[in-house]
Design a protein that fits this description.
The structure holds 2 protein chains of 2 kinds.
Chain A: H1 3-24, E1 30-31, H2 45-55, H3 57-60, E2 62-68, H4 78-94, E3 99-103, H5 108-119, H6 134-149, H7 153-157, H8 169-179, E4 183-186, E5 189-192, E6 197-204, H9 211-228, E7 232-237, H10 239-273, H11 276-301, E8 304-305, H12 306-332, H13 338-364, H14 369-392, H15 405-421, H16 428-448, H17 464-475, E9 482-487, H18 491-510, E10 516-517, H19 520-523, H20 527-539, H21 541-550, H22 559-566, H23 575-579, H24 584-587, E11 598-604, H25 609-615, E12 620-622, H26 624-658, H27 661-684, H28 691-713, H29 718-742, H30 748-775
Parallel strand pairs in A: 1-8
Antiparallel strand pairs in A: 2-6, 2-7, 3-6, 4-5, 5-6, 9-11, 9-12, 10-11
Helix pairs in contact in A: 1-11, 6-21, 9-10, 10-12, 10-29, 11-12, 11-14, 12-13, 12-14, 12-29, 13-14, 13-26, 13-28, 15-29, 16-27, 26-27, 26-28, 27-28, 27-30, 28-30, 29-30
Chain B: H1 5-18, H2 48-52, E1 58-68, E2 76-85, E3 89-96, E4 100-104, E5 108-112, E6 117-121, H3 126-132, H4 134-140, H5 143-149, E7 150-156, E8 161-168, H6 171-174, E9 177-185, E10 188-196, E11 201-211, H7 217-224
Antiparallel strand pairs in B: 1-2, 1-11, 2-3, 3-4, 4-5, 5-6, 7-8, 8-9, 9-10, 10-11
Helix pairs in contact in B: 1-3
Classes of the chains: A alpha+beta, B alpha+beta.
Amino acid sequence: MTAWRRRAATAVVVLATAAGFAAAVPHLRFTTKITEFLPDDGANRGAQIAALLAQTELARVMILDLSLDLSPGAPGPAPDRLRDLTHALLAFLGDQPDVAVARSGLTEAEVAAVLGFLRAWPATTFLPRDAYTDDALRARLARLRDQLGSPAGVVVRDAAPRDPLGGMWQPLATLRAAQGDALTDDGGVLMTADRGHAFVFVETRSSPFDSEAQRRFRGVLDGWIARAAPQAVLQTAGTAQFAIASEAQMKRDVNRIGILSTIGILAVFLLLFGSIRMIALGLVPMMFGSAVAVLACQAMFGEIHGITIAFGTSLLGVGLDYVEHYYAHFVLTPTVPAAVTMNRVAPSLVLGAITTIIGFIGIAASGLPGLRQMAVFSMIAIVASMAATYWIVPPWMPARYRAPRTLALVDRSVLALLVRVTRTAWSRRWRRLGLAVVIVAAIAAAWAAEFSDNVGMLVSDAGPHVVEDRAVRSRLGPMASAFAVVTAASDDALLTAVGDATAELERARAAGQVAAFVPLGRLVPSRAEQLARFAAAREAIPRIRRIMTELDFVPEAFQPFWDVLAAPAPALLTLADLRRSPIAPLLTAWLPAAATPIAVFPLTGAADPAALRALAPSAAIIVPSETIIELFRGVRIRTVVASGLGFAAIFGLLLARYRSARKALVALAPALLACVATVGTLVAAGTPLTILHVMSLLLVISMGVDFGIFFVDTTETLEESARTMVSIFTAAITTILSFGLLGLSASPGLAALGITVTLGVTYSLVFCLVLAALAGPRLASPGIAP
Amino acid sequence: MIPGRRAWCAIALAVIASGAPCGSAAADEPRPPAGLVSGEPARGRALDPVFAYFAFDRLRCQFSEDKHVALLARPLHSTGTIYFDRARGIARITLAPRPQAAVLTATSLRLRTADRTEEIPLDKTKDLRAFALIFPTLLRGDRKALEGAFELGLYGSAHDWWALALTPRAASLRALVHRVVVIAHKAELVSLQIAEASGDTTDTQLTAAVRDAGVSDAEIATAFGAP
């Protein structure tokens, strides 16, 4: 193929890719789902439940917390103004097309509807079986008599003839207890007891993870506040706020990393290569690689996570490494044709790319869908960048080129450094001593390293939205520290399991293992339990009549009650009935409509989850923080194993390439030593190692091995070694420019990644020099052996 | 516990009955004449002198109540003290047959017994809210507000024995209560009678009334408990 044909072919490919990317951009879907960073371990019950919980209303509902600026001179009492404002907000939200549900307290119509619904079921439905002992009957009827004589008597007077034992009030008492003392319903508005804050619960039709829709909705809310109540303060809690904050944070990261690293990389290129054409050409592989990776991920996953984009932006620096290595050899031997130079360095580049991909396979095996996408993105980007470097760049290289003086200066300096450090021939004893020091350092670092699986992958614990979320939730009452979760194959089976779990949790509460929970079994008895209650009531008819007479009641006045008990079978309440009922909005957080029937008991004061698990075997006791830690521990172990395997695979690959264990070891050494030094530095800084550090070390190995390969492959002369060191130096600089900036991210995960990789790459560069020094005068020989 | 509309209205009736300003008539004082509440009641300006009696800041009186409930074979009898405070509402302290405190404010009814406290919000129906506020409205002499929910009729003479009958205007209220009658001798309330739609009746006799400055802050604080 002639030169112009190769240029034409590469131009067609590049332009076609660019056109395809431009056409696809409007259809790209981005997400910031935090759940993508939850382990998807299908065999782990905790992971399954975490995934289920993430799909329920618990995750979907946004809590709006309104309060007023209590400046003097404001019209009317603050609680009244706040209540009116909340009603106005509810009306406004009701008109918003994206709002599916907006509610606060119970309105007059809702109260009437709830009571009407409860009254429609037999009085036995909600009355526990233990209500039919003589003592319990006497207590309930005596209470009814007292109520009839008190100002509250008229409350029960209407329902008493058909429900003398007060069954229909049981669910309301349960719900009232669940609301707790922290909240009060003031005119249909749920407020804190001091009426300083009012709450609205909103569910949007858009996913809470759809950050664009949620940002738009937040804008609408803020606009309303600014217009209708500039003196009001709006705070929010819920997943949507995290999505908005995460997106904003990622955008900031991408913009900062993209702009600053591009400027830095351009400056480095300009300084070292002095050619606008080469700078432009050098950007082609990484842009090509990124475009291909974005399109491939969109096709494979249906959407691209924001963190993948943020990571991919920083990966641009890695994609440049291949071009830089090629450029370094080209510009320092400009008389050699570009294609020839490429053929000479290509094996190193391919080998480096393959080892990097092996490293990303380890990340893909982590079990986190988000990281899997990130790894796939990276692998595709690397392959595409590598292909572009090999095939697209050479035809467009300048035929005549004069290296800038800065490059010559750097090259001479590196050469002088190499000459100096390789002057001394280190004896075998010293090398062994050095090896011993490394081994001791590695052992010490491993011994001192503290692992933590309590990671905040996307969210900074001290972020303002986290603080606000906690403040809002704390006003709603004691926060659940754990959940008892029950799942079943069908609604009927679920209600049976809920009944069992309720009984177990009541025993656990009596034993002091849980302070409070919502006894869902009292709200939704199973079919079998309803039949058993009905049978217990029928069996108790003679005793009920006798005790009524003892307490001065007129049994005949309760004919509606006797008529219900005379029926052959009671009407049975089902979960479907409840979900269609006016009471449904009150239950949806605990009995969410999900593909898998699931019931969630929020638990407060569960200090000893292990003891609670023993007392409540029917439910899975989930302590979110503990479950996440447990899940990430599994991820970390899998990643470490995958890293070990990846490392062995890289060594095997190097062995196959060099057919020399010594050469393979030398190629691995910078990466290995860099890992030890990085861990040591992190340990010395008191940083506990997380799964993200482990994965970052995989990246360090991948890139460090590239350096090692470049180093080993070009040691025929000191001059060639110097050129390689220049390319390694350049690659390190550009990588640090991207990952170092990632280290400044507000996302703890991205920051950990950036810091670790920056340290690792820096150490890889340093250890390349150390290895050169250890090789001594023998560096410039085919049989390099430090 | 979240009662329904009818229940809300009914509770307001009971609380109103328990919290009316009471006269100082003793058992041996003359009783209202037979047939006081009969014939065609006076309306309009004839009620003005009655409303002129009500302008209290505080009130304390004893009550003795008989409640005839169709569900029970015998009437329920209770006695105790009623407190009124313009800012806080009404506190009904029952001493017999069992101690109980019922505190009615503009927004809720709080019931305290030896073993439990129960708070019932009063803002769930417009009818209920209007009904619950009858007593303070009456004490303020705010006739217009009362007439919004009830038809008022006066029997007898405001200068001697008189009876003020309140008949609900709304069908929802009429389904619960037939009529409330306040009986008084001049400025002294003597009894309240509530006739419910179910046929149940409540007759509350009021005695030993002490007004305004005669009721100390400490008494009010004790009766109403924590704010």
